[in-house]
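Design a sequence for this backbone.
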């Protein structure tokens, strides 16, 4: 029987998953986590855990926007436990998560699937077993989105800026003032902000601000949709167990 770490920030979904997985008699949930921080600590401390079923978006009220995702948690765990098996299980369609997964360098002992395509616990246990065996699998829909994000990034104005320049453009898009950005970035004066923001031909910052603003708009639309369906926002990304598709 597989000894499983279950990572899901929505308690009712986590409970239903635990009950469903254990009912298959193929998995025993030996640890549960609601945040990436908890997942990392449990995986590093409990050597009995063989594999993790990991939600991708993991809200953490204690750290807010700085909360690590399921992908980030897996990367951190693998620093201490190389090739630790993990199955990513997500409703998220935000480019950020696909971009993070592509950059993670995860090559084996994993699966990444959409919740809507793997609703039943009996569909998840083969993925968990394969991850333990060292195999990898990516849902074709997820693979298409990862490829789409890679191609878009290759032609994005962001690709032409260095990290500091990207950070300034992101904060400008968030409505921060030059003074706030200078303080956050540790610049000695506000002129540095203007210099960085106007790198290149002067159009990059405007294009990047539009890029990040549109991301915030997508997140607002996502949360509005969750409210209409009666799901909580700001605390979880999973839907009801009977309707896990976003």
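Sequence:
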């Amino acid at each position: 029987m597989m000894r499983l770490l279950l990572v899901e920030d929505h308690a009712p979904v986590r409970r239903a998953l635990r009950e469903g997985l254990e009912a298959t008699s193929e998995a025993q949930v030996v640890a549960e986590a609601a945040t990436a921080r908890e997942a990392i600590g449990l995986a590093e401390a409990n050597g009995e855990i063989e594999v993790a079923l990991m939600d991708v978006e993991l809200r953490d009220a204690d750290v807010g926007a700085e909360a690590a995702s399921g992908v980030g948690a897996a990367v951190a765990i693998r620093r201490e436990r190389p090739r630790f098996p993990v199955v990513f299980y997500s409703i998220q369609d935000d480019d950020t998560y696909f971009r993070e997964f592509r950059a993670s360098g995860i090559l084996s002992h994993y699966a990444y699937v959409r919740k809507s395509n793997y609703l039943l616990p009996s569909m998840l246990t083969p993925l968990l077993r394969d991850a333990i065996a060292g195999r990898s699998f990516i849902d074709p829909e997820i693979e298409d989105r990862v490829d789409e994000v890679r191609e878009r990034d290759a032609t994005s104005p962001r690709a032409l800026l260095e990290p500091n320049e990207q950070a300034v453009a992101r904060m400008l898009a968030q409505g921060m003032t030059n003074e706030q950005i200078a303080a956050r970035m540790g610049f000695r004066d506000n002129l540095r902000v203007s210099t960085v923001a106007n790198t290149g031909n002067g159009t990059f910052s405007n294009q990047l601000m539009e890029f990040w603003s549109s991301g915030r708009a997508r997140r607002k639309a996502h949360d509005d949709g969750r409210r209409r369906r009666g799901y909580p926002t700001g605390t979880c990304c999973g839907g009801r167990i009977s309707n896990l598709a976003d």
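The first strand starts at residue 2 and ends at 7.
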